[in-house]
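Hi C.,

You asked whether I'd gotten around to modeling the 119-residue construct. I have! Everything is below, sequence then structure, no commentary in between.
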Amino acid sequence: MKSFLPALSVALLLTSTAHAGFNGPSDARAVTTNVQEAVQADEMTTCVLVGNIVKHTERNRYLFQDKSGSMIIDIPPHVFGQVDVTPQDTVRLTGEMSGKKHPDKQDTHLRVRYIEKLS
């Protein structure tokens, strides 16, 4: 029995999920949390927005709205995964601003990497 307990302890340690990351100073920009800030943000600025996807506009493009305004977002089909969303559902979107490198195209949008249905 004594040899079984240490082996069990090691097995439990190896299978437990640990969340690790860097804890310290950062030169990274602050995360943008509303549409008004997002449309003014630089290319590749990380955004975490909470609001509603109001309508589908074309291909992977949708109109997103929060309390500060609305903007176009790009959500590839694989990001939706198994999540069904209606305009009445509140969602949290995580992504980066894109399209500002080509000001002549005026294609500023949020490239969504993760979507979470909140209600």
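If it helps when you're writing up: The CA atoms of residues 3 and 9 lie 10 Å apart.

Thanks,
B.
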